[in-house]
Amino acid sequence: MGHPLKIAPDGPVIVIGAVNMDLSGTPAAALRDGDSNPGRVTMTPGGVARNIAENLARLGRKVSLITAMGDDLYAAFIRERSLNSGIDLSLSLTFPYARTSTYLCVNESNGDLHTAVSDMAICDLITPEKLSPLLGQINKASLVLADANLPEETLLFLAEKTEVPLAADPVSAAKAARLKGILPRLVLMKPNVAEAEILTGMQVRQDGDLRRLSDALHAMGVERVYISLGERGVWADDGRESELISCFPGTVRNTTGCGDAFVAAAADAWLRGLGTLDAARRALAAAAICAADTSAVSPALTAEAVELMMSSRLN
Predict the structure, then answer these.
(1) What does pTM read for this prediction?
(2) What structural domains does the chain harbor?
(3) How far apart are CA 256 and CA 288, in angstroms?
(4) Of 52, 100, 180, 245, which is the most exposed, with the fewest CB atoms less than 10 Å away?
(5) Which three-class secondary structure state does DSSP give residue 1?
(6) CA distances (Å), 315 to each of 206, 248, 287, 309, in order?
(7) Burial class (CB in 10 A: 0-12, 13-18, 19+), 241
(8) How far is residue 276 from each of residues 148, 266, 280, measured CA to CA in Å?
(9) For residue range 261-313, what is the model confidence (pLDDT) as tens digits?
(10) Is the CB of residue 267 less than 8 Å from the CB of residue 56?
């Protein structure tokens, strides 16, 4: 499995993975388990890959999303909203008799996730056989960004057959192990601590362990490692420079989607040729813009908004 062979700076970013219809409930007061909680329920297009794609589009990138949807009302709603956000769906797959992915979450009153159920069986239909006819287009990308909602065989196929830089999002502790076989091909990845522990077989007990964890991921082939520490920020490390960078201060209305904003901005910064630490700061700025909004993807996110957030920290 070799490293990327082609650099196409003017090509689109191609994001491959899941879309969901996100159904989200946030109580108005402290959440009471086993009871009906007055609050706010929203229905928005989501999914790790789709959120990353929309964030990239909002940052000014040409972006194409390869995903799987059914032929139902959820799919129609997701398609309309995605196209209006500047996401190209011409390479996406439709399976008329399958259910479009649905993600149902209940948040704490402060916006933090309390629990969730995901119905994502349709992602298993994004197989190497379905992607093989698209390789010609995929290999014109400036970057391919895959999420771990894809089957492991599909991730391996992308690592072996794509000729452009590859990045990945582990999605969750339950799915992170799917990335083990493609780590040598990754130019960047953003695991949280639990996901990084699964990928390396190591444990983090103190901040000093973060360097060992990232060193292990570098030894497995990953170039840039961003270990998410939640509200504490991120450990950014490329084997040459590293730092624990704190989050931007500000109002937190929602944490769902902040990681997707971070990944999109980190990928955008990588494409701009920015260093690992500068990229992390820009990505944290994008995450802060997302956190201040009630939506998983903030309509306030733009390249200019990120610059403004960055300058506010400097001042």
Answers:
(1) 0.91
(2) 10-126 (3.40.1190.20)
(3) 12
(4) 180
(5) coil
(6) 31, 13, 19, 10
(7) exposed
(8) 23, 8, 6
(9) 999 999 999 999 999 999 999 999 999 999 988 788 999 999 999 999 998 87
(10) yes
